[in-house]
Amino acid sequence: WLTEVAVEKNGIRVSPLTLTLNGAPVKGHANVDLSVPGYRYDLALETSQLPAGPFIGSLNPTLKGVYDGMLDVVFDVDGAGVTGVNLKKNLKGMANLDFKGANIELFDSWKKLFMTPVALVLRVPAMLDSPIQGLSLQSSFGDGTVNLGEFKVLSPQFEVVSTGAIPIADDLMASALALPIDLTMK
User: Fold this and answer.
1) HSE of 5 in the Cβ direction (CA atoms, 13 Å)?
2) Higher pLDDT residue, 106 or 183?
3) How far apart are CA 135 and CA 68, in angstroms?
4) Considering 16, 127, 157, 177, which has the largest number of Cβ atoms within 10 A of its Cβ?
5) Is residue 52 a contact partner of residue 67, using CB atoms and an 8 Å limit?
6) Is the separation of the CB atoms in 139 and 146 below 8 Å?
7) Alpha helices in 27-184 (DSSP H)
């Protein structure tokens, strides 16, 4: 692990940040200016082939040993503020995630009971028993919009793909999620 952390009167700087986590390289930086209302930030993180199981298990011990697969993450964001108004005006950057070789069960027994009628109405009963084998997200932020280049969920039985733009509303929770979803059964 190689890093330098500077805690100053007006902010925090972490640069460089390089380490090996479960055999995977991780690099990034963080610069946070606390003197600006709502804060000003420049954050980046990148990792490739990070074993997902141990990482997720360390964040949530109840999930230890539940997940397989590898994570690739590239995150680079610059902005000021955390409200919708500020994010709309100041947020720029990108976030990409690839989760390959996963084995994620969508529904445990009690959720499956609730979701069975939904799956039957949608005529996709295979969704109930088919694990997720991969997730992919390619996104960018800027000009008051979150652009979803592609969001993909892969399973042996189906594939879900969505792309589009999410305009950031002044009230962040009112941001419209009008994204088309393409569901393909295999």
Assistant:
1) 3
2) 183
3) 13
4) 127
5) yes
6) yes
7) 52-59, 84-90, 109-121
Strand ranges inside the chain, DSSP E: 2-8, 11-21, 24-33, 40-51, 70-80, 92-104, 132-142, 145-154, 158-167, 181-185
Q: What is the pLDDT of residues 29-76, one digit of tens each?
A: 999 999 988 899 999 999 999 998 888 888 888 877 777 899 999 999
Do the Cβ atoms of 72 and 98 come closer than 8 Å?
yes
Distance from C-alpha of 132 to C-alpha of 67, rounded to nearest angstrom = 11
The two most distant CA atoms of the chain are separated, in Å, by 59
> Which pair of tokens denotes residue 14?
């972490």
User: The tokens of 43 are what?
Assistant: 């954050």
**Bridge partners, residue 3, by sequence:** 17
Strands 181-185 and 24-33, bridge-based pairing: unpaired
Residues 127/157, Cβ–Cβ less than 8 Å: yes
Nearest to 162 by CA among 178, 144, 180, 143: 180
Interatomic CA distance for residues 131 and 108, integer angstroms: 11
Distance from C-alpha of 32 to C-alpha of 9, rounded to nearest angstrom = 11
**For residue 107, which of 125, 89, 95, 82 has the smallest C-alpha distance?**
125
Q: 38, 81 in Cβ contact below 8 A?
A: yes
Q: In the beta sheet, which residues pair with residue 33?
A: 11, 40
* Measured distance CA(69)–CA(43) in Å, rounded: 25
